[in-house]
Amino acid sequence: MNRRRIFLFAQMLFREVRDAAVAFVALIFLAITFVLPQRLVVRTMGFLARVAGMRMPQLSRNGMYNLALAFPEKTEAERREILRQSWDNMGRTAAEYFFINGIWDYNPKSTRPGRIESSGEEIFAQLANDNKPAIILSAHLGNWELPMIAAEYHGLDSTALYARPRNRWIANMVSTRRRSAMNSLVMSGPGAMQRLARALESGTHLGLLIDQYFIGGPEIKMFGHTTAANPIFARLARLLECPVHMVRVIRLPEDRFRVELGEELILPRDSNGRVDITGSLQLAADVIEGWVREHPEQWLWVHRRWR
Hints:
By secondary structure, this protein is α/β, with parallel strands linked by helices. It has two domains: about 1-100, no CATH class; about 105-300, no CATH class. The protein is about 50% helix and about 15% strand. It is built from ten helices and nine strands. Strands 1-9-8-2-5-3-4 form a seven-stranded mixed sheet, sandwiched between helices. A two-stranded antiparallel sheet has the order 6-7.
């Protein structure tokens, strides 16, 4: 028993030291972002992620497996290039966390092009002024944090669901950066459904990323293959009868972005007139599949979407 306790203590100590070391490196990187030009930092992180990511065996295998399922018509070389660019997008997105507040410079009255293009201004205005709650769905494309920045810019009272990183030091850093740029945040886990329902009942706009595998979730199809989806948005829409929209971010050349907010989704209904859970998940997945087919290099391929 004593040996087991010593082993568990040593294991815990190793994880703590490792996590603290990773956080220290992240702090150094944060300090660098205040010295070097932001765009240089972002491009450098993209390059480093591209080089290092392709040398991570397990994650790269996940990515190539997913790409083979999604694009069987492409050659292995074409799929590998998509994965390289996906790593680049992840590296850039990670770097942009550190100055997420300063990215949004959209000004429809300006004659000078900024870093942000926006589509769906009328819908943003409608959501901000109709005094109703709404659910806004998105995916891990481009910089997937920008929709919450867009919501704040357009005056939407918003709440986002997020997964806390396992590294507690990094988790605190990320939460601090997010809270400085976004409105309310709800951590995923036990009780999250109830907290999100209360937020919607208060009239907020709920932001959800819905493109990852969800253990025990209803089965749907993506790229012709069965996967499991998180039913939380459909259950909330069914419970509260609130509108659902979808928003995506496209990464453009020269470190620019396009944010596109779509019209309200017409969710399928069951024979009793209630929102059909699985049908709604499939509808949203079909939209995301279309987005990914348009810009496959900007999606998070290393996630195990099909299992």
